[in-house]
Specification:
The chain is of the alpha/beta class. The protein folds into 2 domains: about 280 residues, Mur-like, catalytic domain (UDP-N-acetylmuramoyl-L-alanine:D-glutamate ligase), CATH 3.40.1190.10; about 140 residues, Mur ligase, C-terminal domain (Protein-Tyrosine Phosphatase, Chain A, Alpha-Beta Complex), CATH 3.90.190.20. Helix content is about 35%, strand content about 15%. It contains 15 helices and 17 strands. An 8-stranded mixed β-sheet has the order 4-3-2-5-1-6-7-8, sandwiched between helices. Helix 3 packs across helix 10 and helix 4 crosses helix 5. It is globular, with a radius of gyration of 21 Å. The two termini are about 20 Å apart. Its cofactor is Mg(2+). Belongs to the folylpolyglutamate synthase family.
Amino acid sequence: MERLLRLHPREIDLSLDRIERLMLELGSPDRQLPPVIHVAGTNGKGSTTAFMRAMLEAEGRGVHVYTSPHLVSFHERIRIAAKGGGRFVDEDALADTLIEVERVNDGRPITHFEITTAAAIVLFARNPADVVILEVGLGGRLDATNIITEPLATVITPVSVDHEKFLGDTIELIAAEKAGIVKQGRPVIVAPQAQEALAIIEAEAARKRAPLFVANQDWVATPERGRLVYQDEDGLLDLPQPRLIGRHQFTNAGTAIATLRRSGLGVSTEAIEQGLADVEWPARLQRLTAGALVERAPEEAEIWLDGGHNPGAGIAIAEAMADLEERVPRPLYLIAGMLNTKDPLGFFQPFAGLARRVYTVPVPSSLAGRDPVELAVIASEVDLATEPSDSVGDALDRIAREETTLGPPRILICGSLYLAGTTLAENGTPPR
């Protein structure tokens, strides 16, 4: 991995030229894949992918899955179909495939994401499966995963402002990059969108004559009395609520159901129900109940972990915390670390009046981590009480020393997938 990182001077350099050349030299494994579902969007890509995988596996289908970034181990990015459910790629297969693509690339410039995506595609082409789910790394139009020219279907989850340096600083520009995965004549399943984003997606689909299947027009997924009600032209499904926490997960589950039904994969209602119950997606409102860090928290504390890091994610996570507060009131404390490429003001705004205090911490696994003192100043601009801390563990110690007259606290560790990964590693509970 360290050697591959040296092949290109820039971590992100969006282009298809290098991956197209490498695919050809590898024998075009991108054209030897099982049917592909290609997923782009700003928020909800991973959860939507996790729902689709769980439902397909409940139906007995073999599913390869490619996601990014990873939380603790790179192997999390490449899930290989296996009997009884997929597994992370093993060390030998990953190392052998990376060495092969490195040899074929022959030292020429290529980004780390491009060459590892090539390795994933080689692995997927060589191992049997019924479906491949490919999650876009960044944007869509020039993302390495867009080497796929004939997907079974494309999916666009909610689009909001993020990665402005690479994708543009307006919702329209970002939506145009995401819509770059739309392919000629292939169905496009669209999650709820801001009107500006939807207009761009609709225009691209019209240009490509790609059939659209749009949330709240062609399909609807809503929470009703603690259940998920899904409806489209094929009928209504009255389903259990998703295992993943938060109102936004009803939307992500609906997007997954819409995609599987529109793709003609024939997933039964029973498999959809089982998938909703079985789904796992670490660091997305994940409840931490045991581990080294949990032991440092106050007795009976409720600890949640989420890697969301942009304003759209902030809204969704804050809504989930508000829902928990309504059911079981507890004082809410945030432990937050963010990268200096993100919008902390937009992320923190939804927590105003909801969080008792924000403890800001470094992001130890990234050189782009924002200084905790600077982050605390920004959080205070939306009237949040703030306190810089040295680490997640230090913040937990400080919360444990807080006045306890309000009862056991609810603690949310948030703001960065890098911070989430470090937290899971330090807690001793990495994804399995």
